[in-house]
């Protein structure tokens, strides 16, 4: 066995029964690293730890789906398991032997029109995508898919001057969970340059009034907005002026009034396509706008088509909910939700985590280890059997927005299937 330091954390490298295990210990303390290593060795000895050569993300989709179903069988009713197996048939046929680590945002988006061409209902597609999402989360790949789409959006938005306002607003939404109306209502008096915070005073709900710390990306956006304001109105900015002034970009911007919105820029941005021949960025049409090219662009559609600005808030909240270290109270304080019910409306991603936590309390596992106890029953006065897992429909991708109801959750879209 060996403990070594790689980057910030300590790692361990050991072998059990001829299998090599190389794992991060996720600590910077040597003594804590030794304790964590002993736990990993014990898990490996009990056969509960996957070897380095058997990492889930390296499996072909079919094998990964088999392991996923094997785990679900312990927690779901037979009918629910059968439903998921049925949904997986189409996914298996489409992704075939593709390695889980090779499944990208583009390949997921291409799956939607493939199923629409087969006349699959929106609800069916959403269920299938929900299963795919859970498999990729198990492979620790989903966050990469979501990040890829987010970076694509921001890179495109920053590419043209006429999209700069929409770009800066998008950065704030993705890094603060703010609504469009909250962003438009910001005044310079709401920005604390010393504390690096901003105060949301006007919101959809009373709980929406809050103070938000700014991370590096949001802070850079605020500084850029301040530089733009100084260039337009001079060094002495009034505290009552709006961060996003009315009619910015036109001949006479009015800082005393809030911007009405960036709808036109957002629509142009999310619908923009690239000519496959000359790679010119342009609006959809019949032929390329480049006079020297004129290649056919009929039928081309942006992968961002149908993305609403409000989806950025949904994405930010979902990312917070997926974090193991962020409590629901913290998420509610950041997002400005009135109740946990509203939090659940935006993110169902903790359902699997809650199921795992409750399964750890199951007395079935205790009964298996105690001699003389009957597996699958409780040794209580009433002799109550362990509850059968409810027959639930597999977690679907919310049918919120979108022209036809299909939705790829966490990929920043309520979009059309195309």
Which characteristics define this entry?
418 residues, mainly alpha, three-stranded antiparallel β-sheet, 15 helices, 10% strand
Please tell me about this protein's structure.
With 418 residues, the protein is mainly alpha-helical. The chain has a domain at 2-54. The protein contains 15 helices and ten strands. It has helices at residues 30-45, 61-72, 78-95, 105-117, 122-138, 142-157, 164-176, 180-184, 216-233, 263-271, 310-322, 328-335, 340-346, 351-359, 363-369, and strands spanning 2-6, 9-16, 19-24, 191-192, 197-200, 210-213, 245-246, 254-258, 273-274, 281-282. A hairpin with a 6-residue loop joins β9 and β10. α3 crosses α5.
Write the layout of secondary structure elements.
Layout: E1 2-6, E2 9-16, E3 19-24, H1 30-45, H2 61-72, H3 78-95, H4 105-117, H5 122-138, H6 142-157, H7 164-176, H8 180-184, E4 191-192, E5 197-200, E6 210-213, H9 216-233, E7 245-246, E8 254-258, H10 263-271, E9 273-274, E10 281-282, H11 310-322, H12 328-335, H13 340-346, H14 351-359, H15 363-369
Antiparallel strand pairs: 1-2, 2-3, 4-5, 5-6, 7-8, 9-10
